[in-house]
């Protein structure tokens, strides 16, 4: 099982357009073999699992997504039951990050690439 964290430069949410700089959205992707599941934060307390193939990650790269490999483990076993306020809060709960300084996708990417 491989875990990726995806960062997108596009969103339809107004708050993300105002407060976030380069990356506007983030989502965890869990890859098992050739199949992957992207867990999309839709709104407060609503997470949707999108089943994709591993080659679809390359298609998403053409649409403004950047992916980094996460070397840690998943702290929440049932990802769909996580109660989160933002997409960053959701990814932090999945990865077990407790830093209060991380509030935007840009700071989350910076934190994950430092490790």
Question: How is the topology of this model organized?
Answer:
Elements: E1 2-8, H1 14-19, E2 25-32, E3 35-43, E4 46-53, H2 56-62, E5 65-70, H3 87-95, H4 105-114
Antiparallel strand pairs: 1-2, 1-5, 2-3, 3-4
| Quaternary structure state of the chains depicted | single chain
- For the biggest β-sheet, the strand order reads 4-3-2-1-5
Q: Mean pLDDT, nearest integer?
A: 86
Secondary structure category: alpha+beta
- Number of DSSP helical runs: 4
Percent of residues in helices comes to 25-40%
State the separation between the terminal residues, measured CA to CA.
Answer: 20 Å
Major sheet details: 5 strands, antiparallel
Strand content: 25-35%
Radius of gyration: 13 Å
Total number of strands: 5
What is the string of SSEs from the N terminus onward? EHEEEHEHH
Basic shape: globular
Q: Give unreliable regions as ranges.
A: none
Précis, in short:
Helices cover 28% and strands 33% of the residues. The chain has 115 residues and is an alpha+beta fold.
Written account of the structure:
With 115 residues, the chain is an alpha+beta fold. The protein is 28% helix and 33% strand. The chain is built from four helices and five strands. A five-stranded antiparallel sheet has the order 4-3-2-1-5, with helices on both faces. A hairpin with a 2-residue loop joins β3 and β4 (46-53). The chain is globular and about 35 Å long. The model has no long low-confidence stretch (mean pLDDT 86).
């Amino acid at each position: 099982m491989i875990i990726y964290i995806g960062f997108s430069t596009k969103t339809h949410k107004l708050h993300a357009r105002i407060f976030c700089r380069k990356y506007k959205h983030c989502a965890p992707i869990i890859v098992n073999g050739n199949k992957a599941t992207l867990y999309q934060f839709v709104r407060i307390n609503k997470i949707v699992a999108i089943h994709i193939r591993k080659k679809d990650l390359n298609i998403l790269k053409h649409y403004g997504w950047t992916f980094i490999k996460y070397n840690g483990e998943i702290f929440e076993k049932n990802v769909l039951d996580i109660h989160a306020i933002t997409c960053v809060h959701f990814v932090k709960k999945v990865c077990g990050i407790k830093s209060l300084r991380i509030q935007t996708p840009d700071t989350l990417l910076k934190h994950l690439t430092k490790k």
